């Protein structure tokens, strides 16, 4: 009911006086809105707000944003924006925005395999040499390698992840495996078969399958791409080699020996962890997040302390006996948006976020291992992650996935041809993968 | 008074001849102009939101163009179409899409018809309640319903394996079982839509025909086959057309449940992967154009059939 209706019922005087009383308030409101609009049109007047696009975590990046906002002394503030859960969806969203020159992207939590593509597309701002020197000091080699493209540091190493071999101490003992020495895939396959159990690996047609194949191929002494920096027409793949065939043989062996466990072709990292927690598997290859996850389950009552005490960990299994394993390398690097209007502040923020203290904090609270070696000596880290020394050693051996601007084509090509794992054979799978990926890169085939 | 009948005069033909030709033509022209003026804004909006994107997609499909490398945009004529049509992935995706379309539409039609009959026969007092209850699945967002079905059949957390005693059977690990779950979720969600359309069709069947058939001793099945269905052909064809077009564009269920794994990729999902995941705008646009052409082809086939049935319903053949 409007004021007109009120006056028509004999309250004209009251209506007018109310309108008069409201006049100053209305003027103030209009003034405030106008001032807001003018401010918006004329640009920021206060300290700038940097937007940090983060991957989902347990709140650690938001806390780091708060800490670094505080550390800036009011010169800038950082706010976080959440990206989708899986790496390829994160890439899709970022590429769409950056292709449109989105200046709101100041800071990016970026998965290492996508760094060459972003760098080649001109989506990442340059990192000055002095900043590069500062942010790589004391950082594990694989993390620096993963943050570099064309011999230049294009992102800042933030946290560096790697997979370990997780096992049940009792099961390894039962199978007579000496876990103090490096183990091979064949050994754990035999042990799982002997125990009538399985190995929890990630066979889903997703990035985790590429991670697995890359670890197997590199551990067998090969590489997925022979010349990752070449023009797409000239890229040579290293799958049709003894190493590629060995990788396929390991997967085939897991299936043929009956130790793949249920649902291998749809199993991701979480499903593997669930299988391992539920006594469905004696061995598991997975990222360190499984440790705080299991602790959480014990706290919830979903797992017993006995089960947790039976958890063992060691370096990722090797393909060839006597040769070192090449564990998967993952993690997150920080990229500076090429279209950001506050690049200096963003570079400063990256240095704050990746300080040793903050990396140690992030490791402890979110279970994501630090890229800086010094963080592994932090007593609190060692207390929360007794496997920290193994993680550090694993990171030194870790093999990055192919670094190419066409990584998506290579990765999805592998996912298509090496899936489902039940159909993988050394005779045909490497050849099919090579044919598909080369065809796609030469624009002769669909992906 | 003479009762001799005169031959019928051709009044309708002579009248226009006697009318001033130019004046009528001007009026007709004016009316036509007014019609265009009134329809113009709607027509412009239609062009803007329908024709322009299609033409733009067709234009983009003639280029080799990657979103992360926009400077190397090259006009390549129809090479994107040649790549698509020469690749078995397209044909496999097309086969999967047609399979889903045929199975879901056929099952939905039978179930929808049965539901429509139940609702038609239901007591007036409970009819709105039955209609509302049946409509609930259709009101749920597809992403939510797809996730629920995925959750139910999921190996790790699903309850279907426990209930059926199937243990470790991986429903999404095999093409046929994965497609079965996808079809099941689609049927569950969209059957109410078909049943509502058919219910409207049932209401159009003249009661007098049913009663006449009953008096003539026709059985329930004979009445269904000879009276009910022929009189509902228009409603059936409309339901088939809408659902076939909708089912052919299936995307959400596949995205949520399988991500195209184990040969469950539809043509829409294939277009999504080339455009959004690979960022190959040219190739993705060509795929979108092909999907569009397939949809148009289905529509033309159905509309032609629809016209034939309308004619037969009017007794014109």
Describe the protein in words.
The complex is a heterodimer of chains A (447) and B (317). Chain A is globular, with a radius of gyration of 27 Å. By secondary structure, chain A is of the alpha/beta class. Chain A starts with a helix and ends in a 6-residue tail after the last helix. The longest helix of chain A is centred in the N-terminal third of the chain and has 40 residues, at 3-42. Chain A contains 19 helices and 11 strands. Chain A has helices at 3-42, 60-71, 87-99, 115-120, 129-136, 141-146, 169-175, 185-195, 207-219, 242-256, 269-277, 290-300, 305-309, 343-353, 356-366, 379-384, 388-397, 407-417, 429-441, and strands at 49-54, 77-82, 107-110, 148-149, 152-153, 156-162, 164-168, 199-200, 283-286, 311-314, 329-336. A 5-stranded mixed sheet of chain A has the order 2-1-3-11-6. In chain A, strands 8-9-7-10 form a 4-stranded mixed sheet. In chain A, strands 4-5 form a two-stranded antiparallel ribbon. By secondary structure, chain B is mainly alpha-helical. Chain B contains 14 helices and 2 strands. Chain B has helices at 11-18, 21-60, 79-85, 88-121, 127-139, 142-153, 160-164, 175-204, 207-215, 220-231, 233-248, 252-257, 267-277, 281-313, and strands at 63-64, 74-75. In chain B, helix 2 (21-60) crosses helix 14 (281-313) and helix 8 (175-204) packs antiparallel against helix 11 (233-248). Chain B is flat. In chain B, 30% of the residues are buried. Mean pLDDT of chain B is 86; it is low at 1-17 and 313-317. The interface between A and B is medium-sized, with 31 and 29 residues.
């Amino acid at each position: 009911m409007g004021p007109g209706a009120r006056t028509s019922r004999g309250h004209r005087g009251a209506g007018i006086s109310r309108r008069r009383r409201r006049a100053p308030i209305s003027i103030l409101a209009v003034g405030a809105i106008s001032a807001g609009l003018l401010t918006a049109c004329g640009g920021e007047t206060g300290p700038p707000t940097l937007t940090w696009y983060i991957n989902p975590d347990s709140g650690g990046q938001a806390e780091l944003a708060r800490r670094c906002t505080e550390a800036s002394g009011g010169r800038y503030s950082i706010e976080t924006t959440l990206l989708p859960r899986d790496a390829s969806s994160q890439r899709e969203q970022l590429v769409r925005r950056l292709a449109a020159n989105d200046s709101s992207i100041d800071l990016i939590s970026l998965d290492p395999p996508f760094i060459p593509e972003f760098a080649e597309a001109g989506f990442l701002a340059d990192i000055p040499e002095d900043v590069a020197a500062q942010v790589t000091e004391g950082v594990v080699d694989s993390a620096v390698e993963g943050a570099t493209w064309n011999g230049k540091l294009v992102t800042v190493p933030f946290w560096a992840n790697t997979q370990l071999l997780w096992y049940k101490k009792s099961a390894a003992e039962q199978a007579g495996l000496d876990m103090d020495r490096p183990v091979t895939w064949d050994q754990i396959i035999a042990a799982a078969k002997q125990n009538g159990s399985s190995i929890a690996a990630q066979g889903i047609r997703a990035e985790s399958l590429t991670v697995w194949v890359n670890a197997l191929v590199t551990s067998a002494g090969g590489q997925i791409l022979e010349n990752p920096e070449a023009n797409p027409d000239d890229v040579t793949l290293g799958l049709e080699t003894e190493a590629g065939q060995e990788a396929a043989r390991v997967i085939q062996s897991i299936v043929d020996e009956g130790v793949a466990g249920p649902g291998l072709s749809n199993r991701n990292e979480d499903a593997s962890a669930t299988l391992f927690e539920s006594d469905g598997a004696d061995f598991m290859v997975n990222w360190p997040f499984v440790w705080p996850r299991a602790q959480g389950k014990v706290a919830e009552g979903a797992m017993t302390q006995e089960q947790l005490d039976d958890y063992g960990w060691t370096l990722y299994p090797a393909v060839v006996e006597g040769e070192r394993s090449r564990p998967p390398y993952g993690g997150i690097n920080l990229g500076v948006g090429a279209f950001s209007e506050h690049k200096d502040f963003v570079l400063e923020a990256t240095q704050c976020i990746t300080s040793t203290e903050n990396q140690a904090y992030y490791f402890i609270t979110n279970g994501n291992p630090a890229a800086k070696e010094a963080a592994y000596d932090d007593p609190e880290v060692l207390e929360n992650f007794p496997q920290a020394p193994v993680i550090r050693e694993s990171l030194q051996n870790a093999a990055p996935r192919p670094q190419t601007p066409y990584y998506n084509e290579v990765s999805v090509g592998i996912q298509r041809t090496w899936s489902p794992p039940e159909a993988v054979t050394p005779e045909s799978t490497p050849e099919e993968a090579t044919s598909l990926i080369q065809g796609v890169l030469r624009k002769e085939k669909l992906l | 008074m003479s009762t001799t009948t005169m031959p019928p005069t051709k009044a309708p033909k002579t009248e226009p001849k006697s009318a001033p030709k130019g004046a009528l033509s001007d009026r007709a022209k004016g009316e036509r102009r007014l019609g265009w003026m009134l329809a113009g804004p709607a027509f412009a909006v239609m062009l803007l939101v329908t024709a322009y994107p299609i033409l733009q997609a067709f234009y983009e499909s003639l280029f080799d163009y990657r979103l992360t490398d926009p400077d190397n945009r090259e006009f390549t004529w129809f090479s994107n179409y040649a790549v698509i049509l020469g690749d078995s992935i397209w044909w496999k995706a097309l086969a999967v899409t047609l399979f889903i379309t045929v199975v879901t539409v056929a099952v939905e039609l039978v179930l929808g018809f049965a539901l429509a009959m139940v609702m038609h026969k239901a007591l007036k007092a409970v009819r709105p309640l039955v209609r509302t209850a049946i409509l609930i699945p259709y009101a749920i967002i597809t992403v939510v319903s797809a996730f629920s079905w995925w959750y139910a059949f999921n190996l790790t957390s699903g309850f279907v394996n426990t209930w059926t005693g199937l243990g470790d059977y991986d429903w999404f690990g095999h093409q046929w079982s994965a497609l079965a779950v996808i079809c099941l979720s689609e049927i569950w969600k969209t059957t109410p839509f078909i049943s509502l359309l058919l219910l409207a069709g049932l209401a159009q069947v003249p009661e007098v025909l049913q009663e006449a058939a009953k008096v003539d001793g026709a059985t329930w099945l004979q009445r269904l086959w000879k009276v009910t269905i022929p009189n509902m052909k228009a409603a059936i064809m409309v339901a088939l057309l809408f659902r076939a077009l909708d089912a052919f564009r299936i995307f959400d269920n596949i995205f949520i449940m399988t991500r195209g794994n184990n040969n469950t990729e539809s043509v829409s999902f294939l277009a999504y992967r080339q455009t959004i995941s690979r960022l190959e705008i040219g190739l993705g646009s060509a795929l979108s154009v092909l999907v569009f052409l397939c949809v148009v082809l289905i529509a033309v086939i159905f509309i032609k059939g629809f016209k034939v049935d309308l004619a037969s319903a009017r007794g014109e053949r």
